[in-house]
Design a protein that fits this description.
alpha/beta; Rossmann fold; seven-stranded mixed beta sheet; 5 helices; 9 strands
């Protein structure tokens, strides 16, 4: 592990952010639906912090269904309500939100800042949705019969199992990911254990409608 002084501080992503902001794909709609579904299942209240609003579809939908949404991003490109980094939410008081949503955000910060980010989310929100990317390419065999609610799915992830992120170098350059679910040292069990230092894990699951996403539904352990 590099010395703390060499760890890159959270910053804007070096991609064409203006162009990316204007792109919408099926995954945006699937991800937004799962956020809505998970928040509804928590029945946690209406005050929501969306960390990393991206194209803004989830924000618009959540506001449309009655949630009071505040957005936060380190990059003003995405027109957040508040500019700041997830590892320092000092602009918000304890328990300010009923839930925080960090969908495909935390992998964009170097690993030494991860615990600080989780601690801050648990401090400002009573619940959290943390969605994370799954490494590699994905193959799915799925059987959904039309006359029963049965949904069977077999998912195979293909990537270099020996690839171990150092947590301080964004190795997956086009995505600027410092780490991902499934990489060595970042198994679901390892990430769940890390989350459990700050949250009770209500449930966790693979999004079978968008395979690159593994989703955690959390309840803050801070009083």
């Amino acid at each position: 592990m590099s010395e703390r002084g060499a760890v890159p501080e959270p910053t804007v992503m070096p991609l064409d952010r203006e162009q990316w902001r204007k792109q919408l794909h099926l995954s945006n709609f699937v991800n937004t639906y799962y956020q809505y579904r998970d928040l509804q299942s928590l029945d946690c209240g209406r005050r929501i912090l969306v960390i990393g609003p991206g194209q803004g579809l989830d924000t618009q939908v959540l506001r449309w269904v009655g949630y009071e949404v505040t957005t936060l991003d380190i990059d003003e490109t995405f027109s957040p309500d508040v500019i700041g980094s997830v590892h320092d939410l000092s602009m918000f008081e304890d328990g300010r939100f009923d839930a925080a949503v960090a969908s495909h955000v935390l992998e964009h910060i170097a690993e030494p800042y991860l615990d600080a980010a989780l601690k801050e989310i648990a401090r400002v929100a009573r619940h959290a949705l943390v969605y994370l990317p799954v490494a590699g390419r994905h193959l799915q065999l799925r059987f959904v019969p039309g006359i029963t609610p049965l949904d069977l799915s077999l998912v195979i992830d293909m990537h270099n199992v020996l690839d171990a992120p150092d947590g301080v170098t964004a190795k997956y350059c086009e995505k600027q990911h410092f780490w991902e679910i499934g990489r060595r040292g970042y198994s679901v069990r390892a990430v769940k254990r890390r989350l459990a230092a700050h949250f009770d894990v209500v449930r966790h699951y693979r999004n079978r409608d968008w395979l690159p996403s593994y989703n955690f539904v959390l309840r803050s352990r801070q009083k």
